[in-house]
Amino acid sequence: MNDKENPSRDDWLNFPALYRERSTMVAAECLALEALETYLLGKGPTTQNQSVESHLANCDRCSRELEYLKAFLADETAAGTPAEDLADIEKILRNQAQAFLKARQNETRPAVVVLMPQRPQKPIYATSWIQKLAVMAASVILIFAGIYYFRSQPPQLPSGTGPADSSQVRGRHVELLFPLGSLSGPPSELSWQPVAGAERYSAHITEVDGTPVWSETVATARVALPAQARDRLIEAKTYYWFVEARLGGGGIARSERGTFVVELSRKSPSPR
Question: 211, 230 in Cβ contact below 8 A?
Answer without folding.
Answer: no
